[in-house]
Amino acid sequence: MKMLRKLIQAPSIEPFTVEELAAHTHADDDHHDYLQSLVPRARKRFEQRSGRLLVEQTWQFALPKFCKEIHLPYAPLRSITSIKYINNLGQLVTIDPSEYRVIEHGLTATITPKLGGQWPAVGFKVADSVQIECVFGHGTLTNEGTIIDNETLIDQDKYDLAKQAILVLIGDWFRNREDTAPVKLYDMPNAFKAIADELAVELL
Known about the structure:
The protein has four helices and eight strands. By secondary structure, the chain is an alpha+beta fold. The mean pLDDT is 91.
């Protein structure tokens, strides 16, 4: 069943400091702004390939109806904000969290009805009859909202490895930044692809 996806709230900070970028690329101060401009694109490239989201972000998924098990496409899951459906009056109804279970024993989370329960019937089978809003991300922000909170990281080993893959990609783009360079921004180095595929939440 086709699942529509929409980013509701993008990360408000990137997972790298200028010092980390400069140390990896050996760039001088004049290139710091350019390096920082590469980070969002490289992070998104990693997330699209692996399904693993580095920094807290909110996504909405839509389905034409409920299925027995709803498999979320991204990881790691931090929370489910809401599950809603359109009833036969055309109203958007929020399901009480006590009515469903979140199973997190695999690479991604699965949502099912509570034990002995079942999903309600949707009133109209349109593309967004079922709407699920979730928060994902290995890292969250500190209370000050300026840096990643290391105390709340989910699976730091995988987070650090993901950062290493993104640094490889940024370094490759930085070295080949001139128009005449043989490598373009749509190219991906093998080390980046290997790490991203190793961390992928589903088989590619």
